Each structure stands twice: as C-alpha cells, then as structure tokens.
User: Fold these one by one.
Assistant:
Number 1:
Amino acid sequence: MLLFIIRRILQTIPVLLGVSLVVFLIMQMVPGDPATLLAGEGATKQTIEMVRHELGLDRPIIYQYFDYVFHAIQGDFGESLRNNRPVLDEIMIRLPITLQLALASILITVVLGMIAGIISATKQYSMADISIMIIALLGISLPSFWFGLMLIYFFSVNLHIFPVAGWGTIQHMILPAITLGAGGAAIVARMTRSSMLEVVRQDYIRTARAKGLKEHIIIYKHGLKNALIPVITVVGLQFGALLGGTVLTESVFAINGLGRLIVDAIRTRDLPMVQGGVLIASVIFVFMNLAVDVLYRYFNKRIDLN
C-alpha cells in the first residue's frame, strides 16, 4: 500500500505540470495586457513597457513558464498583479472557505444520494423508486446557479429562514451546500441504485436470505459494502466537480472563497493568481483521486494495486 501511494504521488507530477502549462497558455491567449491594466488609463507607451519589463512579460513565453514552475516548486507562486500580495497568502485565506463548502456539499451528496439509492433499489418499481428517480433526473438537469437563486428566493427573500449571502455561520453554509450538493446527490442516487440492484441478485445474497438473516442486515452489512466500489468512484469525481462548481455557487451567494478569487483574477487578468488558484485546486483533486484508490482497497481486498 505504501509503495502504491508513493508511486501515485510521483505520477501526479506530470499531471500538475500539464495543468500548469495549459492554464499558462490559456491565460496568454486571453485578450488584454496586464501591464496596460496596471499602468492605468492614459499611461504612455513607455510606462507600459516599463511595467512589462518589471513583471517579466517582455521575455519569451517559454522562459516565463519555466521561471514560474521553478518558483512554484519552492512554494512561491509570485505576487498578485492587483494588490502586490503573495499569491499563496491570498489563496490560503480563501481556501478554507471553499473546502468547508465542498465538504458540506459532499456530505449532502453522499448521505442523500446513498439513502435515496438504497431505498430506490430495495423498493424497485414502487412509487418511492419512481419518485426518487424523477427527482434525481431533475437534480441532474437543473443548472446549479438557477437552483441557488431559487433557494435564495424562497428561503431567504420570502421565508427569511436563511441569510441571502455571505459566510461565517452554519446558516450561511446550508443553502450553498444544498445548491452544490444536489446535483451530485442525484448522480450518486442513480449509481447506488444500479449497483445495489446488481448486488442483491448475487448468489451470496440469496444464501443469506435462505439462512433467515434479517433484510436490513443483508442490505447494509453484506450488500452495501460490495455495492460501494462504483459509488466511491462517482463520489471522488463529484468532489472534483464540486471544486469547479464553487466558482458559480460562490458568485451567486457572494462567498469570498477560492472560486470567486479565481473569477476575479480572470476578470483582471491577474495571471499569477489564476495559475496559483487552479494549481492548488488541481493538487486537491489529484489527492482526492488517490484517496479513492486507497478506499477501493479497503472495501475490496481483491483489488490489485499494482
């Protein structure tokens, strides 16, 4: 297991290099010049060229990229072009908020999705099964930003139960977490249902029933553990999707997290901030996939880690 983890960590190096290169090249193609933005309106061409030289933007792109990677390896992501503060410091201020939102959302995704999927599988073709699958289809189809606005309208504007926007209390967390986790819960519910239906038809489940074991013991002790493997895959992928989804959700609910920081940086063409934010999010996603692989082995000892 230790060798597997070390090998997977080493495999993340080219992935992260690829991510950093793609983001760097995309930002180079975005219209606008950071030097012009920093110099301000009415700046002379000489002033703009001076700013470009100070930022190192007058050097060849390949040199700019390798210089960025060299410093990033040392934990230096440069300084923000907007406020001259270290990029890593700005990210570390915003990152805990995004992680709290993502963890609350994944909790909703897992709990609601698995409960709905198990109920749907154990009551196949019943009204409960049909209702859950219809709701799951709606959850997958509805855009998260629209769903968030509707939650604000009903629970904040009309009923005054939750705050409209902001962050800092449990009440502030509930609506954004539901917005972000609803779509994932729908996907997990469908996957749990399919996996459970496949498992409950296995011979060992029939044997357990023939022995007279109680149905809830058969489902939760014998069936669910074996049905979790594909569900774990979906949950791992959903966590990565949640990190991306926080961009819209944080904008809708005016949450100053990492997603909103990246959006603001893109608007102002703050290249170091965009690169740093995306790279940190990529690191989290890669290590989440590593955790998924480890959980595979925990739930199924027969899985080969080589």
Note: The chain has two domains: 2-73, 88-299.
Number 2:
Amino acid sequence: MFLNFNYTFTDKSYNNPREFDQYNEDKYSSVKSIHIHGTTDRHDNNPVIFGFGDEIDDDYKSIEKLNDNSYLEHIKSINYLETDNYKKLLEYINSGNFQIFIFGHSCGISDRTLLNTIFEHENCASIKLFYHQKAEHIDNYSDIVRNISRNFNDKAKMRDRVVNKNYCEQLK
C-alpha cells in the first residue's frame, strides 16, 4: 500500500509493483494508494485536508476545552471522517505485519497522531528511510529520525523499529 500525504499523484511514479519485488513477497500484486490528505482532482470525492494533526499535544486538549467547534474545523483526524481513506488505512495495518518505507516525508508533528497510530501499531515490523544526500557526508537521515522520535510515545519501540542507516537508502 502506498500512503500518499501529497495532494498530487506522485504515487503513480511508484505504482509498478515490480519496482518493489525485492521487498514484496506477493510480487505481482497491484500497489494500492490512499491519498490520506485528499487530492487535487476535484472529481474524485477526496477533498484536500489542511490543518493540525497532533491531538497528542497538550495544546490540542486546551483547544477542545474551549468548547467552540470552529477551532476544530481544521483538525485532520476529524476531517479524515469525510472519506473512507482512514478506515482503509486501519483495515490495512490491522490485516497483518507491514514494513514502512518513507519517501520524502519529513515525519514532522503536523501528522503526529496518524504517524503514531501507524508507527506504534503492533503489526509494524520496521520503518525504513529513503533519505536525501545533500552533499558528501551531509544528508537528512538523522533529521528524519529525530522527527520520527517525536511521533513515538514508546521510545524503546522507536529504537527497535527504525532501520539503521546502513540498511536505508538514498532517494534517487
């Protein structure tokens, strides 16, 4: 499954299952995509979702206590309920073990609640990063790992699941 956080269709460039043969036991299955934050295609009934996605944060609790629904208008988890994307994601992660590949996502706290749900799920086997090599001896692997750590409540799970840089790959 390709969980796309982008509003465009960049996932189509990865939609050849043979590209994932080295990782995929079911080599000839089709890659399914979920555009969790909607798309730019106004005809697909998948509206774009902008907003705050960190209900783990203490500030979110204070927003809820204001008892004013207008402050919750741009909360991602509430807007996920406008489509069945989130439900499809949960069905997928509940169906068996999975490995996460991260391509181009910063893993920052704007998606913290969703990433926490996926990263700490009992079926998550590992999290493999595809990082940007900026210059010789300079890349963003450690920055992504630091961001990933903020999405974990259980830091022992984080250290167990994030793949060591030696086994991760540069984006090409």
Note: Strands lie at 2-4, 33-35, 98-103, 124-131, 133-135, 138-139, 169-170.
